[in-house]
Amino acid sequence: MTMPLKGFSPRKLRELREERANGISSRQLSIQAGFPRPYGEVRKWESGLSTPSLKRLRVIADLLGCSPRDLFDVQRGEEELVHLRMWAGLSSEEVALQVKISYVAYRRLEQGVALDRTILGSHQWKRLAQVLMVGEEEVRAAWRYSSLLRSRRRS
Question: Does 115 have pLDDT greater than 90?
Answer without folding.
Answer: no
